[in-house]
Design brief:
Rossmann fold, 8-stranded mixed beta sheet, 8 strands, 2 domains, binds NADP nicotinamide-adenine-dinucleotide phosphate, N-(1-d-carboxylethyl)-l-norvaline Dehydrogenase, domain 2
């Protein structure tokens, strides 16, 4: 089974490493990509194709793991060359998924959503999939993946994912804002302790992890919130999602690209303080 990845960031490199370990043949294309992506591909030791066209022509399963804003563009670029099944795994709304997948001329498509952190769960991360070729994608479970077919229509998997994101990213934004204020006042440890009294065991660990990952992934989350807002706006004025989207856009400007994973949330807050001091 030849599995191709369009995009080779956190998701693709993590899944690719696991698939390779379990005996799959894995491919990507790094032509024109950033140094970070090229390094990830080098570390993973997978097969490289000279172009996205070659990748599309030679993959039995082709997974798009780019960024939400690039999902349609990439599908359009490779659409007429796809020979196997094309899976969109980006955090995009059902309508963006439909648009992207409409470019895949052979019609062999499915819409997939990652539930949870790839970094924490690796190849075993829960992936929901829906669409006409969902079952073909789920065949990758024999290489250790955890793919769960939830329906036969494009958009079902991405709707679940985005509504979940609306909640989890909203909570992360609120937590970040609250704890940053507490940190500036020198009472962050106490605030964490007293919230934990109502939120229960494990709250502190998950709060710290949310703050750190919000900072590291602020750009991607701002993009993802654009997709959430589009979906929620169909049923309400999406006030909370819009605020969350603005929060992540601003955080990205304040952090300006963290290039190493912070050891603690205080490092993130110090980075913001230093940047504000320089202004
Ligand atoms: N990480 C997670 O835990 C997680 C969870 C759920 C969903 N997702 C979704 O999964 C997707 C991938 O996430 P990620 O964390 O792997 O992102 P990432 O680390 O930012 O990686 C994105 C990759 O896509 C490449 N790329 C961007 N535009 C491209 C294009 N036009 N053609 C080919 N490659 C392109 C990037 O290359 P450059 O480096 O050259 O820009 C990079 O290799 C996103 O849509 C995200 O919303 C991620």
């Amino acid at each position: 089974m030849k599995i191709g990845f369009l995009g080779f960031g956190e998701v693709a490199s993590t899944l690719a490493a696991g698939l390779l370990n379990n005996g799959a043949e894995v491919f990507t294309c790094i032509e024109g990509r950033s140094l970070k992506t090229k390094e990830l591909a080098k570390e993973t030791e997978l097969n490289l194709c000279k172009s996205n066209r070659k990748l599309a022509e030679s993959s039995d399963i082709l997974i798009s793991a780019v960024t939400p804003l690039q999902a349609v563009k990439v599908a359009k670029e490779v659409g007429k060359y796809v020979k196997g099944v094309y899976i969109d795994i980006n955090n995009i709304s059902p309508s963006t998924a439909e648009k992207a997948l409409s470019y895949i001329e052979n019609g062999k498509t499915a819409d997939a959503s990652i539930i949870g952190s790839v970094r924490k769960n690796g190849l075993n991360v829960n992936i929901l999939v829906s669409g006409p070729f969902a079952n073909q994608f789920a065949e990758l479970n024999r290489y250790g993946m955890n793919i769960n077919v939830i329906g036969s229509e494009i958009g079902q998997a991405s709707a679940i994912k985005l509504l979940r994101s609306s909640f989890t990213k909203g909570i992360s934004a609120l937590l970040f804002e609250t704890l940053y204020s507490a940190y500036k006042m020198g009472i962050d440890t106490e605030v964490l302790k007293y919230i934990a009294e109502t939120e229960g065991e494990g709250f502190k660990e998950s709060a710290v992890s949310r703050i750190i990952s919000s900072a590291v992934h602020s750009s991607r989350r701002a993009e993802e919130m654009g997709e959430v807002i589009e979906l929620i706006s169909k049923s309400s004025d999406a006030k909370m999602s819009k605020a969350t989207g603005e929060f992540f856009k601003q955080l990205y400007c304040e952090i300006d690209g963290i290039n190493k994973w912070p050891g603690d949330y205080t490092e993130v807050f110090e980075l913001i303080n230093n940047k504000n001091r320089k202004k």
